[in-house]
Specification:
Length: 635
């Protein structure tokens, strides 16, 4: 076989397809992050890990590059400007970032700073988010879209923010909200800027397709929108209605779904203008998808369109509807959160061990008194060739099943069962090796590769760091950050360190189909082996759970300096055990006091001498200041 190259690894793991020119493989076979794009400096993730370890900062680690978000914001703005020129569009593009996607302070503050030139705004869906947005968005030209349920406190918070020079738009999503808004506005003497969210009849597509359609959680029907217009007209407030909003779901995979939705929403917009509302803004919501697997299809972890096609189709549909109705082109708002920040963050974790089936080799020689099942497996091993490998596979399974039944009824002892199992795996290995040489392999051998797959154990929590992988089967790229100039020689699934059997990654990205196992390298004694999970910047941090009380990971903010060199701008240390127990309403200090009482009781009862008691108590209490993750690295 020819030698393995870094280009082979880039192709194997699909970097060029899902990486958006933000990742590459270095000449030394390590994974690099390119926050400013190719040729603008690189962050070698292997070197970064080594440098941080030298400073006492351990894995798991979240690497954030805010410059990536800036590039994504610039891409959206630039692409819509191109589409405006192509279609003679006379409105403005006004990007908005929904902060629910990632609230993290360093990222959010950088997004606001980056977006200042183009007046990018924010979207808030709760009072807490609204207060955060009002505080950080110091730009009177930037929109602050207010979605979600709205009580009097929410509405007053928005209108008080308007008094400070902010630009909140209260989007009516439930008919009952209108009276609340008008009541608070009259009491404060503050004119509200209003929008309405329409519940489109065209359904969405993908996991979040139920965000539109007749049974959608939010939005107004045609009748409800007409009622809102009439109530505003009667109150002398129709001039406050400035925006139409719709949302067809996160991660919209098909461009046809986008076109249909924009076409329908554009008709609602022109009709609202006809009814006398001044309008001026059409908010098409979120949904711009990320191609997590690089396949460019309408598969749920991909998308079958480019950002340019998305912008062009949106602009074309709105322009056509407005020109037909003789209505001025509105400003266009997108709430593209996932498409803005998903590429910003990479999760890094260390493989701390592996479980493999026994290695290849011949079954042990015939011995006196051996079981008939062991003899049958030896015969199956010898039977394996190009014509008989399937038959040998069937014989091996029969022999193993017979041995397990014999053990259960007491006819086979434990040592004999162990010899049978070892011989079974040896036959499986030989059958699999022969099957790989064949042009056609029967379907009943499909599960052979699955049962021969290794399990690599990673020092991370799936529920904390990749909740969408568990909850909605979201695919993320997974690949090693080192040895990418070596041929991978193992196939594995990834298990985390929680005690939940669901804490496993067993579906991996591929251009053609979902892979059930990932190509990795054999672990070397004493050598660290680190895996990366890119594209985790959207939703994963805020949705992470405390399964087994594993808390947030360490995090670093990285960038490229003026000389094109990598730079660590900020280190955020992981949560300690003290922090995790506090989140479930326990006090570390009170727990430590209980341990002190138990220690004293052990001394008084003669179970421990004072010196041993002091050592035990000191060790236990120090655990509250420790990381929630394992301390067992392979290096």
């Amino acid at each position: 076989m020819r030698s393995w190259t870094r280009q082979d690894s880039a192709e194997l793991y699909g970097i060029e397809h899902w990486g958006a020119r933000l990742f590459s493989v270095s000449a030394g076979g390590t994974l690099e992050m390119l926050p400013l794009g190719p040729g603008q400096g690189a962050i070698d993730l292997r070197e970064l890990v080594d440098d941080l370890r030298g400073q006492g900062i351990q894995l798991p680690l979240l690497v954030r590059a805010s410059d990536v978000a800036r590039r994504r914001m610039e891409l959206l703005d630039r692409t819509f400007q191109i589409a405006f020129k192509e279609h003679g569009y006379r409105g403005r593009y006004r990007g908005v970032y929904p902060i629910k996607v990632n609230h993290q302070r360093g990222l959010l503050e950088n997004l606001v700073a980056f977006g200042g030139r183009n007046h990018f705004g924010l979207e808030a869906g709760s009072r807490a988010e609204l207060l955060l947005a009002l505080a950080v968005l110091d730009d009177p030209e930037a929109l602050l879209i207010c979605n979600g349920y709205k009580d009097r406190a929410f509405v007053e918070t928005a209108l008080r923010g308007a008094q400070l020079g902010r630009n909140p738009v209260l989007v009516i999503e439930k008919a009952t909200e209108l009276e609340t808004i008008l009541e608070v506005a009259d009491r404060l003497g503050q004119e509200p800027t209003l929008g309405v969210r329409v519940r489109l009849t065209n359904p969405g597509r993908g996991r979040w397709g139920a965000s539109s359609g007749d049974r959608a959680k939010f939005g107004l029907s045609a009748q409800a929108i007409v009622d809102v217009v009439e109530r505003l007209r009667a109150a002398g407030r129709l001039h406050c209605l400035r925006l139409l909003h719709f949302h067809i779901g996160s991660q919209v995979t098909s461009i046809r779904t986008v076109r249909r939705a924009v076409r329908e929403a554009s008709r609602y917009y022109t009709e609202l203008v006809r009814l006398g509302a001044p309008m001026g803004t059409l908010d098409i919501g979120g949904g711009l998808a990320i191609d997590y697997d690089g396949s460019r299809t309408d598969f749920e972890s991909s998308r079958n369109y480019s950002v340019r096609e998305y912008a062009s189709d949106v602009v074309a549909e709105v322009a056509a509807a407005c020109e037909t109705a003789g209505v001025a082109h509105p400003d266009l708002v997108t709430e593209s959160g996932r498409a803005t920040v998903a590429h910003c963050s990479v999760l890094l974790f260390e493989v701390i061990g592996a479980e493999t089936v026994p290695s290849e080799g011949a079954p042990e020689p015939e011995s006196e008194g051996e079981s008939q099942e062991l003899a049958a497996l030896r015969a199956a091993w010898e039977l394996v060739d190009a014509r008989s490998f399937q038959e040998a596979w069937h014989d091996a399974n029969d022999a193993r099943a017979s041995a397990e039944q014999a053990f259960q009824v007491g006819l086979l002892d434990l040592e004999a069962l162990a010899r049978v199992q070892r011989a079974y795996w040896q036959v499986c290995r030989r059958v699999a090796r022969e099957a790989r040489t064949q042009r056609y392999v029967p379907d009943d051998l499909d599960r052979l590769d699955d049962i021969l797959t290794d399990t690599y154990y990673g020092n991370f929590s799936l529920f904390q760091s990749l909740p969408d992988s568990w909850a909605v089967d979201q695919l993320f790229p997974v690949l090693p950050i080192q040895r990418l100039n070596e041929r991978p020689n193992r196939h594995a699934v990834i298990a985390d360190v929680t005690c939940d059997s669901d804490g496993k990654i067993s579906r991996f990205v591929s251009l053609r189909d979902i892979k059930r196992r990932l190509e990795l390298h054999e672990l070397r004694p004493g050598e660290s082996y680190v895996l990366a999970v890119p594209l985790v910047g959207a939703y994963q941090e805020i949705l992470g759970g405390l399964h087994n009380l594993f808390g947030p990971t360490n995090a670093v903010h990285v960038s490229i300096d003026e000389a094109g060199q990598p730079r660590v701008d900020r280190v955020i240390h992981e949560g300690k055990v003290r922090d995790s127990v506090a989140r479930v309403q326990h006090s570390a200090d009170e727990l430590a006091e209980r341990l002190r009482v138990a220690t004293q009781r052990a001394v008084d009862g003669g179970v421990l001498d004072p010196e041993a008691a002091e050592a035990a108590f000191g060790w236990l209490v120090s655990g509250f200041e420790a990381s929630t993750y394992l301390d067992g690295a392979r290096r």
